[in-house]
Amino acid sequence: MDQGLRDKLSGAIKLNGGIRSVAKRTGLNASNLSSWLKGRPTVSQEKIDGVLKEIGLPDLKPAEDYVHVWRIYQMSPETDDALFLYFPDGFKATHIRVVEPELREFVPPWGGNELFRERVAEFAFITDGNVRASLVVEKGWDSFMPPFQLATDPRVSERFKDVFIDDAASFNITNPSINEFDRILYKLEAPAKSGSLEEVLHTIFQEGIFYDEAVRRLKKK
User: Fold this and answer.
1) What count of other Cβ atoms lies within 10 Å of the Cβ of residue 72?
2) Which of 119, 42, 51, 114 is nearest to 85 (CA)?
């Protein structure tokens, strides 16, 4: 296995909890796994096969029979590259914010201030139509696309959606089944009614403006 692939696998391991977590779950010594990722022959192929299965890449092919669930503090070029082990032909990322009902009247643009961010939950649902993943980036979505190559990669498309907590009561966003994943995306892809809150939010995210300005522009249509 060449070093370039090992580097991508290092990113995939970070998406799946990190070296210590994956090593513990597969009965490996974390130092040995770390050394193997750097190119040293410290882990047998049988053990590596177990690691690949644990991170959802059996035989280096992405698992399609469940939703991959990833939680990471911050994206990096390494984890960006790792996404293409799961989605080699590209993917669509749907960014979802679950917002407290009392914040309906004030939803600042995406990547708003820290005080606002503490009051929402942020996810991305990622899919190519066959492989599905739910991703949490704890530092926030401004660290997910820019400044890394995902922001301009032609294989990647993205969109933003707000889901209010009272609307999302039946959603299992953090650890969805395949049926739940598809149902949530289907609901989010329903067209917004003209003048609806969803349309206002879409304008906010697209233009980088605040609520009052979005309403003013929509009224002028």
Assistant:
1) 20
2) 51
CB 151 within 8 A of CB 80: no
Tens digit of each residue's pLDDT (9 = 90 or more) over 126-183: 999 899 999 887 765 555 554 345 656 777 876 655 555 445 555 676 788 998 888 7
User: What would the two tokens of residue 178 be?
Assistant: 């395949």
Q: Give the closest residue to 33 by CA, choosing from 1, 86, 44.
A: 44
Rounded to 5°, angle at Cα 192 from 216 and 221: 30
Q: What is the C-alpha separation between 36 and 120, in angstroms, rounded?
A: 39
**In sequence order, what DSSP letters do the residues of 113-139 get, joined into one string?**
-HHHHTTEEEEEEEESSS-EEEEEETT
Q: Are 108 and 173 in contact (CB under 8 A)?
A: no
E-only strand ranges, the chain: 68-72, 91-99, 120-127, 132-137, 156-164
Instruction: Find out whether 85 and 12 touch, Cβ atoms under 8 Å.
Output: yes
Which tokens go with 35? Answer: 């050394």
pLDDT single digits (tens) 91-137: 888 877 665 555 444 444 444 444 444 445 667 889 998 999 998 87
The continuous run of DSSP H or E covering 185 comes out as: helix 178-188
What is the side-by-side strand order in the sheet with 68-72?
68-72, 132-137, 120-127, 91-99, 156-164
